[in-house]
Design goal:
The longest helix has 10 residues. Helix 1 packs parallel to helix 4. The chain has four helices and seven strands, in the order βαβαβααββββ. With about 180 residues, the chain is of the alpha/beta class. Strands 1-3-7-4-5-6-2 form a seven-stranded mixed beta sheet. This is Helicase. Keywords: ATP-binding, Helicase, Hydrolase, Nucleotide-binding.
């Protein structure tokens, strides 16, 4: 196995924008997608911005090890390496849009569902700029399927937290307005 782009990766093309935060929350509710408290905080924060204009994002789903970190890495290390490899951080609004599109996400393995301070097995974290530089404020979103229930969840982590090599992140490859 190599380092991106010489490794297996899942790419997706996603339409983003054109919906307000309230409209996104209503669509999530209509699809029976659950939100944790951190996701609710992010979606209702005044700094959570959405684009009035629809645009297309091409994303790539990579493991931490695919970025060259076989022993895991911190969020700043992960983001810095991805940028050096030609990837971009995603807009924060990608989280709810991707959750609405990715309705067939496989369920994670139960042994990692309840481990505190780790991403649940099968979850995908959206690599995005943080809304607020506060370790107690949610950093961003991740998607999970727990016991057959789809979730859009927010998460907190400080810059010293080591993410596991098998943790998945979504990065952007290109952004195109239309």
């Amino acid at each position: 196995m190599g380092i991106y782009p010489d490794c297996p990766a899942i790419t997706r093309t996603i339409e983003v924008g054109g919906l307000t935060s309230l409209q996104l929350r209503l669509k999530l509710q209509q699809q029976s997608i659950l939100l944790n408290e951190y996701a609710q905080v992010l979606l209702s924060d005044e700094d959570f911005t959405t684009s009035n204009i629809k645009y297309i994002l091409k994303t790539v789903d990579l493991r931490v090890t695919d970025l060259g970190f076989p022993n895991g890495a911190t969020l700043p290390q992960i983001f810095d390496r991805a940028i050096k490899l030609g990837l971009e951080l995603c807009p924060i609004e990608l989280g709810p849009h991707l959750r609405l599109m990715y309705l067939d996400q496989p369920e994670g393995h139960r042994e990692r569902l309840s481990q505190q301070h780790t991403a649940p097995s099968g979850s995908i974290t959206i690599a995005s700029n943080v809304v607020k530089e506060d370790d107690l404020f949610p950093k961003g979103f991740y998607l999970s399927n727990i016991n057959g229930v789809l979730w859009l969840r927010g998460y907190t982590a400080d810059n010293q937290h080591i993410w596991n090599p098998c943790d998945h992140f979504i990065f952007c490859q290109t952004m195109n307005l239309y």
